[in-house]
Design goal:
single chain; 538 residues; alpha/beta; binds NADP nicotinamide-adenine-dinucleotide phosphate
Length: 538
């Protein structure tokens, strides 16, 4: 092979978010030549884009930062237990500058497609501006919730006021004071927006299709003694995150619901409700997510909390989910969300009773009336996990398109690779561990594992890696098994791949790895120590 046939880079990383930043750090550390291509004009990924009012962590800040550098841990001070978006974006920029990663990053580079060159075993990445860049390995750090979806409601383009999808919230402040504002969508994003702007706008009308089981975040500033204590206990914090299924500080109570007397159950649930963060979801009795009886009783406990917090009983009932139990969809954490509905300027429209017919130039037309607005906020979510892959035209061996291969749902081995797409390694791929855990904790696992694989290949003279079909099939069966015994597998959400705004996403798709981070890591370690069994290395 002549030099001209050699790719320009050993690795191309698509995306400069949490995953891309750490992957670039590891490759730079090893002296492996790589470049990061990022569509935005700065790093940060999800924290670059999601600038909507109220955007903040649901993870404890100190469990979300990177764990790889003691110096970074010692110098960075999170101001709140659950930091807001501007602070997180500052943090990620700080990491990029501290480790001198910006020189490897190319911003404003939107990737349109990537095709595998079989003869040379490398990828050619096609940018929207017409440029092409080649790399031996293509590492996707394209995010799990980065393909925003507008609602498939007629007339979305016809509205003459201001309208934003939360993901694309502008950099300049949006005037809210005295405005008539609509929010469509009541997932984790909608709940944060509604809570934040209820007392800042003129009138706020919330269009709700399905309510979610929201529970209090209990955020607070971090005082100096706590700051010192956090810094002194980082080893312990990360160790707890390693042990828990979700990579959080919150692990399950090992007891089964029925083994605990009712009074004691209620005492635990009250304590969880008062504890910050995801404890009320993740520190519950071990069978609350799998035993319908346990789940129903806990859901009723939370429903009563909603009834206590919302003054109007009819509104309270509308805000209580009736079609799924607690924790079977992503639990939005909130700050005074339910209290927002006690305000005179906040109106809840249940669009099951009066469906939205269309967006009009003036606002929203339901079957009951036309509402006029100055601003419409679409908190309508994402084509989760596979959406970001579908929006890039990946072409593998024999010209097969990844979006065709995954049309009925993704097939991967460990969420890291997919047959027919050699040297395409996915940091937040479907059915992988990082998409089902506290993201940076899962990402550090994926990046470290992929980096070890690249080193192994370099040391053994391999230049092509591809997951095997039989390994993928076995992985899919395992993933399906992990889904099946959990109540969440029966509920429509992005965990199960449903999205009413994406054609064909109306049956279950196995999107995440629901077996927990420790089990996932165990499998990764087995595969690595067997010389990457399940992958073809050539
Ligand atoms: P989401 O959970 O998918 O919620 C989208 C909302 O829009 C739902 O209420 C949905 O109703 C509604 N919707 C969608 N299409 C609609 C249509 N055509 N007509 C009417 N309503 C429609 O999306 P998200 O709230 O953006 O959250 C996505 C994920 O992002 C979260 O689960 C979480 O993992 C992450 N997130 C994290 C944080 C954080 O860490 N703090 C904050 C925000 C988001 P249905 O429920 O009926 O489908």
């Amino acid at each position: 092979m002549t030099d001209q046939d050699q790719p320009q880079h050993e690795a191309i990383i698509i995306g400069a978010g949490v995953a891309g930043i750490y992957q670039m750090y590891r490759l730079q550390e090893l002296g492996i030549d790589a470049t990061v291509l990022e569509a935005a004009d700065g790093p940060g990924g999800t924290w670059y884009w999601n600038r909507y009012p109220g955007a903040r962590f649901d993870s404890e800040s100190y469990t979300y930062g990177y764990s790889f550098s003691k110096e970074l841990l010692d110098e960075w001070e999170w101001s709140e237990h659950f930091a807001g978006q501007p602070e997180t974006l500052r943090y990620l920029n700080h990491v990029v500058d501290k480790f001198d990663l910006r020189r490897h990053m190319q911003f404003g580079c939107k990737v349109a497609g990537a095709s595998f060159d079989e003869e040379g075993s490398f990828w050619t990445v096609h940018l929207e501006d017409g440029r092409e860049i080649t790399g031996r390995f293509l590492l996707t750090a394209i995010g799990m919730l980065s393909a925003a979806t507008l609602p498939n409601i007629e007339g979305v383009d016809s509205f003459e006021g201001e309208a934003w999808h939360t993901y694309y919230w502008p950099h300049d402040p949006v005037e809210l004071d005295g405005k008539r504002v609509a929010v469509i969508g009541t997932g984790a994003t909608g709940v944060q927006v509604i809570s934040e702007i209820a007392d800042k706008v003129g009138e706020l009308t919330v269009f709700q299709r399905r309510p979610n089981w929201c529970a209090p975040l209990h955020n607070a500033p971090i005082d100096q003694p706590t700051q010192a204590q956090i810094k002194a206990s980082y080893d312990e914090i990360f160790e707890i995150c390693r042990q828990t299924p979700g990579g959080f500080l919150h692990g399950p109570d090992p007891r089964k619901f029925r083994d605990v007397p009712e009074e004691e159950r209620l005492t635990l649930w009250q304590k969880l409700y008062e504890t910050p963060g995801f404890s009320k979801w993740m520190s519950n009795f071990i069978d609350v997510g799998i035993n319908p009886e346990a789940n129903a009783e806990y859901s009723e406990f939370i429903a009563n909390k909603i009834r206590e917090r919302v003054n109007d009983p009819m509104t309270a009932e509308k805000l209580i989910p009736k079609d799924h139990g607690f924790g079977t969809r992503r639990v939005p954490l909130e700050t005074h969300y339910f209290e927002a509905y006690n305000r005179g300027n906040v109106h809840l429209i249940d669009i099951n009773e009066t469906p939205i017919e269309r967006i009009t130039p003036k606002g929203v037309q339901t079957t009951y009336q036309e509402f006029e607005f100055d601003l419409i906020i679409y908190a309508t979510g994402f084509d989760a996990i596979t959406g970001a892959f579908d929006r890039i035209s990946f072409t593998g061996v024999d010209g097969v398109a990844l979006r065709d291969q995954w049309a009925d749902g993704p097939d991967t081995f460990l969420g890291m690779g997919t047959t027919g797409f050699p040297n395409l390694l996915m940091l937040s791929g479907p059915q992988g561990g990082s998409v089902s855990t506290n993201y940076p904790r899962g990402i550090e696992t994926s990046v470290d594992w992929i980096t070890d694989l690249l080193c192994y290949m370099r040391d053994h003279g391999y230049r092509r890696v591809e997951s095997r079909e039989d390994a993928e099939l076995e992985w899919l069966q395992h993933v399906q098994e992990m889904y099946q015994f959990q109540l969440m597998s029966k509920v429509k959400s992005w965990f199960t791949g449903y999205n009413s705004n994406v054609e064909g996403h109306d049956t279950i798709r196995y999107q995440i790895y629901p077996g927990g981070a420790p089990r996932y890591r165990e499998r990764l370690e087995e595969v690595a120590s067997s010389g990457y069994e399940g992958f073809k290395l050539t």
